[in-house]
Specification:
single chain, about 350 residues, alpha+beta, 2 domains, six-stranded antiparallel sheet
């Protein structure tokens, strides 16, 4: 009975704040469409509102969850329900178990939705902005200065427009026992299946001391996989990220980028429970809201810093993004410690 009462009261607070949050964002979205979009088409307003709310909720759910906790505890503390429960030997962990279970459930739901649902929402929001706000009807699938290793060869593509399958400024260097055996350069070419077709390529075969000019076909990777490399990472499903992680390793690309995006989704999803647990302990101990509010700012900052540090480690330094995960792991340790103290009362 106590379990369902606490769950009901917390869900009231969570629903109220979520609705307020959604209303403010919806209003912002409508004004954004009417005032800033080049094509103020009224039919896109519902879609723009929905994508804005969902994209924002994805990142701010941990904050809404903790604000809901504070709103819920205001009622609990005013009635001293937790103190009454403690006289019957009920620990804070047991008393607040419904809130912790809900937060864990919310984390799991967010993580499951980040497999393909949220990437679809991010892509839709991006497409709407490009088409109606910036007047660009299609997503650009461009690759610049791309270096790949394939078997015993290195391929450089200066520029590729994956929408029309064209590539420009191509260089291929074949090696054998550390020596260059073949050098192929071409100004332009195009993708055909798993092959790159190069027009009027300059071919140098050093072992045979032969130089010639001809059209060449190079076995490469399928265009669809190349398109994935040109897409924004948050538009890719988790399954695609995992496959690209292994593929990038085989062809010499920076595969850490794809691991970083997976870790970012993990951080966003499980921050719902990781931040709430130490906040709950601080609120129960203080039975006030000023000092715990400071903790919320600190934990929220660690959350944002973790998202950025994971990305920077992979993108800027080409390092394993697990290095950037350290702040979140520290926060996770604080979460586990908080649960222990809550169980002890």
């Amino acid at each position: 009975m106590l379990f369902f009462y606490n769950l009901k009261e917390f869900l009231k607070a969570f629903t109220l704040l979520s609705l307020v949050f959604a209303f403010i964002l919806s209003l912002y979205s409508v004004l954004d469409v009417l005032l800033l979009y080049k094509t103020a088409n009224l039919r896109i307003i519902p879609e723009a509102m929905l994508t804005t709310v969902l994209v924002s909720f994805y990142y701010t759910a941990p904050i809404i969850n903790n604000l809901s906790l504070m709103l819920y505890l205001k009622r609990v503390f005013s009635k001293s329900y937790d103190k009454i429960a403690s006289t019957f030997g009920i620990s804070p962990l047991r008393f607040f178990a419904p809130i912790l279970i809900f937060s864990l459930f919310l984390s799991l739901i967010q993580f499951a939705l980040s497999y393909s649902f949220y990437p679809y929402i991010f892509k839709t929001a991006y497409s709407l902005e490009r088409e109606f706000r910036k007047g660009k009807p299609q997503e650009e699938l461009l690759l610049n200065d791309l270096w790949l290793s394939l078997n015993n060869a290195y391929i450089r593509i200066g520029f590729a427009d994956l929408r029309n399958k064209k590539v420009h400024d191509i260089l291929l260097v074949s090696l054998e026992e550390g020596y260059i055996t073949e050098l192929i350069t071409a100004e332009e070419g195009y993708w055909e299946g798993e092959n790159l077709r190069l027009k009027n390529a300059q071919i140098n075969l050093f072992e045979k001391e032969l130089q010639k000019q001809a059209d060449v076909s190079i076995k490469f990777i399928p265009l669809e996989e190349a398109k994935a490399f040109g897409e924004k990472l948050n538009h890719l499903s988790m399954g695609r990220l995992i496959s690209l992680y292994f593929l990038a390793g085989k062809i010499g690309m920076n595969r850490e980028l794809y691991l970083a995006e997976l870790l970012r989704r993990l951080v966003v999803s499980f921050s719902n429970v990781v931040i709430l647990s130490p906040m709950l302990l601080a609120l129960v101990r203080e039975r006030a809201f000023l000092k715990p509010s400071t903790f919320l700012l600190i934990y929220g900052s660690i959350y944002i810093f973790s998202l950025n540090s994971v990305k920077i480690a992979a993108e800027e330094f080409g390092k394993n993004p697990l290095i950037g995960l350290v702040p979140f792991l520290v926060l996770s340790f604080i979460c586990a410690r908080s649960l222990y103290y809550l169980s002890k009362g």
